[in-house]
Amino acid sequence: MLETRLCIIKYDLFIKLWRSRFSAYRRSVIAGALIGVILIQAAASIGAEFAAGEMGIIRNGFERFGTDVFFVVAAGLIVFWLKQVLVHRRKPLV
């Protein structure tokens, strides 16, 4: 009875390790949080400059924020286009 339980436990452990081997290649990356980390710096600088009363420098903050948003959108479009071309290899439905 005890040997049977040990065998079942070993088999269960083997199955879990085997399955994790194939699912480990998908890393969970939270893209939204990473984009937020990039954009929060520029937004915070705008707020800090406004609070400090540096109205002339706020323009630089808005320029940086706009540039960061542009690069995030451009990189997203490039990734979607590359995935469409390399992975899906078909015309979009729409």
Describe the structure using short key phrases:
94 residues; mainly alpha; 0% strand
Task: Please state roughly what percent of the residues sit in beta strands, choosing from under 5%, 5-15%, 15-25%, 25-35%, 35-45% or over 45%.
Answer: under 5%
> What structural class do the secondary elements suggest?
mainly alpha
Write down the secondary-structure element order: HHH
- Integer average pLDDT: 77
Protein architecture, described:
This protein is mainly alpha-helical. The protein has a domain at 28-88. It is built from 3 helices and no strands. It has helices spanning 2-23, 31-52, 55-88. It is flat, with a radius of gyration of 25 Å.
Question: Which SSEs are present, and which pair or pack?
Answer:
Elements: H1 2-23, H2 31-52, H3 55-88
Sum this structure up briefly.
This protein is mostly helical. Helices cover 83% and strands 0% of the residues.
